[in-house]
Amino acid sequence: MMHSVRRAAALLLAACTAAASVGCQRTLPPDQEAHSGNAQQLRTYLMSSSTAAGGAGAAAQPQGTGWATLRGTFTYQGDAPARQPISITKEPEICAPGGGAVLDQVLLVDEQSGGIQNVVVFLRRASRVHDSAQPSTEQVEFDQKNCLFTTHVQTMTVGQPLLLLNSDPTGHNASIDQYSFNQLIPANESLVYAPPSEAPFPISVTCSIHPWMLAYLFPRDNGYVAVTGPDGKFEIANVPAGEELEFQVWHENATGPGNGLVLDTPEAKELGWTSRGRFNLTLEENAQADLELTVPGSAFQRN
Fold first, then answer.
1. What is the pLDDT of residues 215-234, one digit of tens each?
2. Are 168 and 188 in contact (CB under 8 A)?
3. C-alpha dihedral sign at 39, 40, 41, 42
4. Is the pLDDT of residue 120 over 60?
5. Which residues are CB-contacts of 243 (< 8 A; sequence separation ≥ 6)?
């Protein structure tokens, strides 16, 4: 084996030397520079041979088999924080019907259970993707009613059609800065948009006509993402089992970098929770993990 590696290395050196002697003053375009035929093949062969021979740093990450499910609950520690009224500055007859106060959706905590709504949990990278988590072509509805987005955090997969509805008798414009998308949606009309790329975190959707309107869209390459409901519960089914997985936890009001939800409670420490709102977990095949996570008010910017 070592003889093969040395021979491949010698061939690679010869190929590179020959290439350097012909036109060494000319800079190749990046696409040609990155795909240099035989030399690249030799590099690939050399790397694979080194791996087989136990070369340092060349070992691939172990890959498990089968699938598992992650479930959990995020519970607020203490009394639920009071929601703040929104200042409605336009068209109050539509945006504040009946003259009642319109409350924000920044931090929603169920008064009975303490469940925290709109916490996002997602798998940062997946070595394998189950059929149930493959990109979807099913249309997702994202509505606007009484000058609010009816879904505060919407997940989807890249390229999935997003039906942007306007159920109000006045116009709205849906603005998604991440994709330089800004379209007027007239009263009681709609349009379809498909996000072209994955986002590392949920991205804001706003309306400049009614500037208090705010929601989040989260396109991912796969379906390994969940948003907690009013009871604070989430579920991500059919994640890869038998290998270490890194999950990210996000909330729009969290104090961590990129709004990562940072926890230092005993149960979070057992998961190796980081200062960026991440934790690692390895699940056995066909297993179901249930996480019970208590969140102190200090984890949020407003409590």
1. 999 999 999 999 999 999 99
2. yes
3. positive
4. yes
5. 61, 62, 63, 64, 127, 282
Residue type, 96: A
Q: Cα separation of 197 and 215, whole Å? A: 18
Residues ≥6 apart with Cβ < 8 Å to 37? none
132 within 8 A of 237, measured Cβ to Cβ: yes
State whether residue 71 is helix, strand or coil: strand
Three-state DSSP at 19 gives helix
Residue 30's SS3 state is: helix
Question: Could you report the per-residue pLDDT of 205-214, keeping only the tens digit for each?
Answer: 999 999 999 9
Task: Kindly state the average pLDDT of the residues 100-113.
Answer: 95
Instruction: Give me the amino acid identity at 261.
Output: L
Look at the block and give the residue holding tokens 């997946």: 126
Give the separation between CA 134 and CA 6, rounded to whole angstroms.
43
